[in-house]
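Need tokens for this chain, all 134 residues.
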Amino acid sequence: MKLTLPNDIEQIPKLSEFIDSICETFCIDMETTMSLNLALEEAVVNVMSYAYLEGTKGDVDIEVVKGPQYLDFIISDSGKPFNPTTKENPDTNLSVEERPIGGLGIHIIRQIMDSVHYERKENRNYLTLRKNIH
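Here are the structure tokens for all 134 residues:
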């Protein structure tokens, strides 16, 4: 199962429909479905916002692979290299005013998903988000 979106945030509702249909197919509960939507939206919006130079058209591919006890969401793009897994977790004990801008998206993704893996190969970024399911 695969979805390709242009790097246009207006397309995010299509991502949500895609995730909802996958979760329905695999009988995933509503709470997990909502969490997956949040994590995938965070990841895909980051790619749409930062992978390509402003004004440059590019695509974001989202592929879903079902394993025996998990779903892998593989987000790939041909934008500039960026490994979000090297980002440290933000200090959530700081007040909103004290916290530096950014970094919460990958933190949210790490909280929701069971594993997050980044790879750069053949001039493409691959971010694999795994969710264990039963």
